[in-house]
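Message: A physicist's question: would you kindly supply an amino acid chain plus fold tokens?
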Amino acid sequence: MATDAPKKLLEPFFWTLFSAGGVVAALLMPVHIFLFGLAFPLGWIRDLSHTRALALIEHPLVRIYLFVFCSLPLFHWAHRFRYTLYDGLQIKHLNEVITVFCYGGAIIGTALAGYLLLSLP
């Protein structure tokens, strides 16, 4: 029973990341898809030049926004994919491997996003 204690402590944390990632994906992704998929290419809004984009990314709040925009949907994906494999495909005997793969991928993606945002000029 001692091994169940860390799992029970981490489960609400992962559900919180799942929920926050779902909110970010539902509210912010459509805006970005509209802007970069329709508005800029069709000329509805003045195009974002490379120098303007770099000037925008230099602001710390924009970097935090982009970090949240990249990392939270990864945890949403990880949680959803984990439970799809666990419940949907009934792969319950590989629960630990699936958990490490899913959340490890989200953690690696989050670390990569943080590194890339910090390494920008």
